[in-house]
UniProtKB/TrEMBL annotation:
Organism: Archangium minus
Protein name: Uracil phosphoribosyltransferase
Superkingdom of source: Bacteria
Keywords: Glycosyltransferase, Transferase
Domain Phosphoribosyltransferase: 41-231
Gene3D superfamilies: 3.40.50.2020
Entries under InterPro entries matching the protein: PRTase-like, PRTase_dom
Pfam families in the cross-refs: UPRTase
GO MF entry, a single one: glycosyltransferase activity
Stretches of the chain forming a coiled coil according to its record: none
């Protein structure tokens, strides 16, 4: 007789309430926010910074797979099958027949994308998993204000038809980098993706506003929302309630409270 215990495995996102709409998920929890606080603090440099980024992404990617990916019922013999016909796991698993593409937005997104790629390969059929690469830089003017994002080169390994397309990038600041990358896929890469997912450690209200306007189909999972430069009336309100007044970017488009330029610190290259 079959045990139905794992026929419908419950999973519920633990997320912070907000008014940014159904495509935004703020999924920080006490454990991850502690690690992220450490990652953002002044004394955290190599090798600890990469260790923390990898740990945080390992968790975030699993959360996204649990929440977004389809499941499938399986009956898989265990090693005990040689001793008893009851040696079978019967229940749900993540459907391995799913296409997934993770995009390395170099440079801060390089390690996060590698973590995502490795985890996807252990979860779905590796033949269906791919990693693409985009060299991307925020462009600044003479006053060091960000004026846009530029693609310096890309290696795109094929189409994205019916694929989950993941953009794991630690900082969502102005949203320029993500919007440029998503537009490039929509304009130049063949196929209709099943879902476009942005996986961030920290996002700003400005980032969410830009993404939701330019690419409302993108689903954002972020551990933390930073709106530290907002006027006093914003603090204490539910995120998104006073969206137009919320501010998380300084004059140079760095996130506040933030954690500095992750790409710079992770690569020890201050350019
Ligand atoms: O939302 P946006 O304003 O576009 O900014 C965020 C981008 O900047 C950071 O990267 P990184 O430090 O690697 O690159 P940079 O040289 O573009 O600052 C970050 O990881 C994003 O890719």
């Amino acid at each position: 007789m079959r045990d139905t215990l794992y026929a419908n495995v419950p999973f519920q996102l633990s997320e912070m309430p907000h008014r940014y709409g159904p495509n935004v998920h703020l999924v920080g929890n006490p454990f991850l926010l502690s690690q992220l606080a450490k990652l953002c603090s002044k004394g955290t440099v190599q090798p600890e910074i990469n260790r923390l980024v990898a740990l945080l992404y390992s968790d975030l990617v699993k959360t996204v797979i649990n929440a977004e990916f389809p499941r499938k019922m399986v009956a898989m013999p265990t090693r005990m099958i040689d001793h008893t016909p009851q040696g079978m796991y019967q229940g749900e698993v993540i459907d391995p027949a799913v296409r997934a593409v993770t995009v390395n937005i170099a440079r801060a997104g390089t390690l996060p994308s590698q973590v995502a790629y490795d985890l996807l390969n252990t979860t779905v059929d590796p033949v269906l998993v791919r990693q693409d690469h985009i060299i991307m830089s925020r462009m600044i003017d003479a006053k060091e204000t960000v004026v846009g994002s530029n693609i310096g080169g890309a290696k795109i390994g094929g189409d994205i038809d019916d694929a989950f397309v993941l953009f794991p990038d630690p900082m969502g600041a102005t949203g320029g980098s993500l919007c440029t990358a998503v537009s490039m896929y929509k304009d130049k890469v063949h196929g209709t993706p099943r879902r476009i997912l942005s996986l961030n450690l920290i996002v700003t209200p400005e980032f969410l506003r830009r993404i939701s306007r330019e690419h409302p189909d993108v689903v954002v999972y972020a551990l933390r929302l930073d709106r530290g430069l907002s006027p006093p009336e914003v603090f204490g309100t539910v995120p998104g309630e006073l969206w137009e007044k919320e501010r998380g970017l300084d004059d140079r488009q760095y996130i506040v409270p933030g954690g500095g330029g992750f790409g710079e610190i992770m690569n020890n290259a201050y350019v």
